[in-house]
Amino acid sequence: MNKSFIIGDEFGVDFIKKVISDAILFKNDIIKIPKHDKSALFLFFNKSLRTRMSFMFAAQQMGMQTVCEDILNLYSFEMENVPMNSDKPEHIKDAARVMSRYADVIGIRNSCFIGGGKLPKNSSVEDVISDKFINIFAKYATSPVINMESDAYHPMQGLALIMSIFEKIPTTSGFESQFSEYNEFERKFDEFKTKKIVLTYAPHTKHLPIATPQSQLLAPAMMGSNVILTCPKGFELSDVCLEKVCKYASSFKIIHNQDEALQGADFVIAKSWLSIDNLTNGNLEESDIYYEKYKNWQLTESKMNLTNNALFSHCLPVRRDVEVTSSVLDSKNSMIIDEAENRMWVQMSLINSLFKS
Amino acid sequence: MNKSFIIGDEFGVDFIKKVISDAILFKNDIIKIPKHDKSALFLFFNKSLRTRMSFMFAAQQMGMQTVCEDILNLYSFEMENVPMNSDKPEHIKDAARVMSRYADVIGIRNSCFIGGGKLPKNSSVEDVISDKFINIFAKYATSPVINMESDAYHPMQGLALIMSIFEKIPTTSGFESQFSEYNEFERKFDEFKTKKIVLTYAPHTKHLPIATPQSQLLAPAMMGSNVILTCPKGFELSDVCLEKVCKYASSFKIIHNQDEALQGADFVIAKSWLSIDNLTNGNLEESDIYYEKYKNWQLTESKMNLTNNALFSHCLPVRRDVEVTSSVLDSKNSMIIDEAENRMWVQMSLINSLFKS
Amino acid sequence: MNKSFIIGDEFGVDFIKKVISDAILFKNDIIKIPKHDKSALFLFFNKSLRTRMSFMFAAQQMGMQTVCEDILNLYSFEMENVPMNSDKPEHIKDAARVMSRYADVIGIRNSCFIGGGKLPKNSSVEDVISDKFINIFAKYATSPVINMESDAYHPMQGLALIMSIFEKIPTTSGFESQFSEYNEFERKFDEFKTKKIVLTYAPHTKHLPIATPQSQLLAPAMMGSNVILTCPKGFELSDVCLEKVCKYASSFKIIHNQDEALQGADFVIAKSWLSIDNLTNGNLEESDIYYEKYKNWQLTESKMNLTNNALFSHCLPVRRDVEVTSSVLDSKNSMIIDEAENRMWVQMSLINSLFKS
């Protein structure tokens, strides 16, 4: 059985709830961090700061053996069944099988778009949206594969987001009550469903990948929330993702008027990404033109005043006073640092759950 | 006493047998993995995927402290006793002595030829064949040095190969018998000597180093097998290596007719490498011309049919349907994934043995 | 409270003495290496060999979780409060706060001058001498920050130097006495104050940073020694540093005549660095001209004969027979390898002290 975690909904909603609940218990030292005499391999085809260190520390805290490979452009794998006389020295099928012998879990970051925005030569949009690379790797791997950001999804960011939201839902009788009985967890997950959660496009000078916003939309949808996407026309993310969001969310709307979308929001997530059209045709505007065109999408304090005193989320890194004003980022309603910390706890909990399932 | 492991025959045949036997016992959980509160440093002057992760996991599983340094081109060491006004910031004698203070064992990968094929400026073939760099390092180091691939040898690949062959030699009465008494190990080592083991040249688009094939020849020779090298004329590997092979093997032949060489083989190892002439004069043919010239050396199913139902070995990475057909690589007789896994076990066992000796 | 260790005198002289004493006790296995179930992050904006491995091994020997990030040029952080539409993807304030959530201690190497010598665009000498980057990082970090070499200081080298000097001060009644009673430590620290310690400029082909010599001067000054700086005119290091040296040292002199300075020295430290003028105006001479101009500053055996049979220190890497003759480096009075080893012990002791304070 393939136990890979690539999109994030592979094992259903209850699995995700368990991952979040455990993460809360580990973070608050209610349950000791579980120990595993097992090994984790983290493969980075793209640079990383937060993901790299949060995964390494998460696994090491569980007593695991850890190796990070910054493959970047040093090495590329053949994915097709062709005579291998190109510049690719190894077939992904051999790499996946060998690495599975060394490591009990394998994290992979492989995105064409990180740092760029252009569809690579000889790739179709379908290849990219379908996360061909990580799926082929997972098919041949005999150890579970964790998606540390692919072209289409960044489920670790999704998990950290919903853990952060969950933490902010008040407990019925003080901080401790959520740990005293499991029912309180259930009650809070029920309350989660009533929340109005808005993902808003933010202006940027670069054309950023769609992986993170897709997971920022899908994860709260999986919790059964009322999810709203607000963005300029043409930035609606992939059909495949939106279908999944519709399937899980209590309600889902796309609203192109940002002010209207923010009305009554309980949680606001700001993020920038490139349009699927841009992704397809590769006609990317210059930095300054692109930024100028959508700069009125910047999230400001006055826009936050339209919400239901909403808490604010951003995945980081954030371009201060470009995507969002510093006043919003540094407000008491900002969850950004807590959410970044939670990356470590959800990843620890996910690895633990994959080993137990 | 210098306890470095550079060629692979430094400590004799019995040492190697002990390394292999222990590796089998660790892998099969018959003996618990030994713990060492010691530190390992792995220095990579060339890129690595398999070697890096298999060494890191091996050492960490023994509870060791581990550091990998990807030196690549960032840093180079002076080897001569000259006023150091060139671009080399540090003398190898100082580096080796300092690193020995930090680390109880030091792995080094330093090969001029990985990724290239050309003799570096100001180097002679003798420098290269004699592994000048790693030998000078080991001379000054006070901790044992392990060769993770030099210009001339890749003894880790040699160890993994003979462990994999050993595993495939049937036990007298079922899987468990080999672990019940030490005599069974001796019996299998005796049977190993009767095997006919063929290393065959394989076509490639690149001019690859000779280190791996030299160790693929030397390691089974050290087990006392009947070793055959088959390759185009001019590809006979270095005299120094061939002399060692002659010294250890029950019998050794070079046969330039591949079909003839494969007759009755028990194990076939395929590998590509550049000729010593090419190494010397640096006149390397273009990829497509080079490949075309020797493409009939590709190992195919019909060639494997000439053997004694031989098991198949390749060190990986392999160019599928260039060096070897996928049908051979994916056949039930292929040991490639097991052998890659065994890299980790032999390296663990070697480090353990170096600490104990 | 900010517990960062950037210049080296933040916690006073007694703190340093405790760090050195503990380091001696750990190294000699008189006190077991303390264990901390905590995490260390090491951020390298410049390449490193010794620092990287000595910190990683030090932390791992204490049972800590460790991650190294070789940021090099991959990533740069915004330090100003401006709209972030430049090429800097993240504000240092966010990075520092997030990393503090992952790591209990953060080592940072960030120097404009390593590998170069030129003041970067848009930076003033004041920015550089004041170590703007690491200080802003430490201001926002909630975990203690350790300076692994900044533009202005390299306090780890300072600590290793004074530990090495301390080791060479004879004990009253044999090796063991220093461990039997704490008073012996005090006595040796008192004797340290009587020593004459000379830092001499050494010729080089490159224009090297001032961080290391500044710490090589400051650290023995903090021990209350008689400190002498000898260098060509114009190479007197920064005023800020010299003021600190004056404040702590029993006596401090700058002597431009090297022979005169070396008379009666107990310890001689050789090091090369660029002049503050060069640092300011960026008019750096070519390698050969620069080297030729100051080559008579090379430390030789005959110069060492002017001293009080002085012990010799160099931080490494050293250009043999350029900065110092091999005869001095390899003499029985050379502490270079011991001092390099001591890097690991002082860093271990420092991390331990930061956790305890």
What does this molecule look like?
The structure is a homotrimer of 357-residue chains. Chain A has 357 residues and is an alpha/beta fold. Chain A has 2 domains: 12-153 and 341-356, Aspartate/ornithine carbamoyltransferase (Rossmann fold, 3-Layer(aba) Sandwich); 161-335, 3-Layer(aba) Sandwich (Rossmann fold), CATH 3.40.50. Chain A contains 16 helices and 11 strands. In chain A, the strands form 3 sheets. In chain A, strands 9-8-7-10-11 form a 5-stranded parallel β-sheet. The mean pLDDT of chain A is 93. The A-C interface holds A 47, 49-50, 52-54, 56-57, 60-61, 70, 205, 287-288, 291, 316-322, 326, 329, 336-337, 340-341, 344 and C 39, 41, 65-67, 69-71, 74-75, 78, 81-85, 89-91, 94-95, 97-99, 101-103.
Short description:
Three copies of one chain form a homotrimer. In chain A, 55% of the residues are buried. Chain A has 16 helices and eleven strands.
- In the CATH classification, which architecture of the largest domain in chain A applies? 3-Layer(aba) Sandwich
Please give the most extensive interface between any two protein chains, plus how many residues each contributes. Answer: A-C, 29 and 27 residues
Give the oligomeric state.
homotrimer
- Content of β-strand of chain A: 5-15%
CATH topology of the largest domain in chain A, what is it called? Rossmann fold
- The CATH superfamily of the largest domain in chain A is identified as Aspartate/ornithine carbamoyltransferase
Number of strands of chain A: 11
Could you list the spans of chain A in which at least 5 consecutive residues all have pLDDT below 50?
none
Largest sheet of chain A: 5 strands, parallel
Strand order of the largest sheet of chain A: 9-8-7-10-11
Number of helices of chain A: 16
Mean pLDDT of chain A: 93
Estimate the helix proportion of chain A, in percent.
Answer: 40-55%
Give the radius of gyration of chain A. Answer: 20 Å
- Structural domain tally of chain A: 2
Query: CATH class of the largest domain in chain A, anyone?
Result: Alpha Beta
What class do helices, strands and sheet pairing of chain A give? Answer: alpha/beta
Shape of chain A: globular
